[in-house]
Design a protein that fits this description.
Elements: H1 2-35, H2 72-101
Helix pairs in contact: 1-2
């Protein structure tokens, strides 16, 4: 039962961190970079210099890929941070629901 309580608290942390953790992490990273006396160029996400091949649109109603309009920080947030945090939250939700529905240990 105690394990379930700790897991629930951890999973609540994941949900909270998904919503507000990215900005807090950026602030912490900037403070750490300043302490390490890093240059401003080293403190930002590097923009990819690789040219992406433009795919032809098959139909007029297909939307443009708006990810190319994002800056490097927003792109990292959308393509990495949210995916990792969504997976952590999904696993935690599954774990809690499995634990809640599993039969209790019966002692004879």
């Amino acid at each position: 039962m105690l394990l379930l309580l700790y897991c629930t608290k951890l999973f609540d942390f994941f949900r909270e961190f998904r919503e507000n953790g990215f900005e807090k992490s950026l602030v912490d990273a900037r403070e750490l970079a300043e302490e390490l006396e890093m240059s401003p160029d080293e403190m930002i996400f590097a923009n990819s210099s690789a040219h992406r091949k433009r795919l032809r649109e098959q139909f007029d109603y297909e939307a443009q890929d708006e990810s190319s309009n994002l800056n490097a920080t927003e792109k990292f947030r959308a393509e990495f941070f949210f995916i990792v945090m969504d997976n952590a939250v999904a696993v935690s939700d599954d774990s809690v629901s499995d634990e809640a529905t599993s039969p209790a240990d019966v002692t004879d």
